[in-house]
Amino acid sequence: MEDHRELGRFLRTRRARVTPESAGLRGGSRRRVPGLRREELAQLAGISVEYYQRLEQGRATRPSDEVLNALAEVLRLDPVEREHLRVLARPVRRTGKAAPAGPVRPELRRLLRLMSVPALVINDRFDVLALNPAAERIFMPAAGPPTGGVNLARFLFLTPEGRDFYVEWDEVAATTVGQLRVAAGRHPGDAELSALVRELHAGSDVFRRLWAGGDVGVRTHGVKSLRHPSLGTLTVSYENFDLAGDSRQRLVALTPVDASETAALVLSPSRTVP
To answer: How far is the C-alpha of 250 from the C-alpha of 242, rounded, in Å?
Structure first.
């Protein structure tokens, strides 16, 4: 995941999404590339074609805010994509081995135990770092625990259980790849993250296709359905909470969408993990 190559890949995938007509240019069936040409994007952004080519080739270092904002406007980037562009264009200087994601604080583990709703702590590699009994009852029969701990991205893409567990599998797969790409941009020196991406790339055709698409995204909340091996289908809403003190960890809390008997069994604080 070389920084200079990632910037070029990201720019190419973003300009391929913008049709000439939507940018006020003439289209036509004789165009050989999807989306905008390099010279068209450069013209619309108010920069030279030569400079834009250098950006895609990774030969232009630290472009100005004005250039990045102009490119973001023409490419119609959302806030997450804008930040990803900035991170790729101005990569953090590497000073050796990347600092690993920190351990889960004891106070946070205690909070998890006191929560009656399913809750877990994961990092931006989708490693499960801690979870309470209610979350164990949902995730552990399906996802593990394998040797070395549970990684939800690996479970999603590389196991048949993962394919069956997530009812909206295609949507979950796309958002997972988008979040992994954001993490890769922010932490290019993370050897474990790079190894995970290589493993998923080698083991999953879907991951390879989604990764090549270049999409990024951060999912903060939503609704998903989980097909539990013994509890049936659970529809839950989830909220992600970034944790102060460790930007690479987040607390995920799940609550039932309805008050079905199955959901009540999962959420009951008096139950223990089977």
So the answer is: 4
261: its two tokens: 């008997």
pLDDT tens digit string along 19-52? 888 877 776 666 677 789 899 999 999 999 999 9
180 versus 21: the higher-pLDDT residue is 180
Q: How many CA atoms lie within 13 A of 179 on its CB side?
A: 21
- Note the CATH number of domain 3-89: 1.10.260.40
Measured between alpha carbons, how far is residue 242 from residues 2, 32, 124, 128, 247 in Å? 27, 44, 10, 15, 7
Distance separating alpha carbons of residues 122 and 126, to the nearest angstrom: 6
Handedness of CA 139, 141, 146, 149 (dihedral sign): positive
Q: Confirm whether pTM is higher than 0.90.
A: no
Domain range 106-267, its CATH number among 3.40.50.11720, 3.30.450.180, 3.40.50.1820, 3.90.1150.10? 3.30.450.180
67, 46 contact by CB (below 8 A): no
How would residue 3 be classed by pLDDT, with cut points 50, 70 and 90?
Answer: low
**Structural domain spans, the chain:** 3-89, 106-267
Q: For residues 252 and 240, what is the distance between their CA atoms, to the nearest angstrom?
A: 5
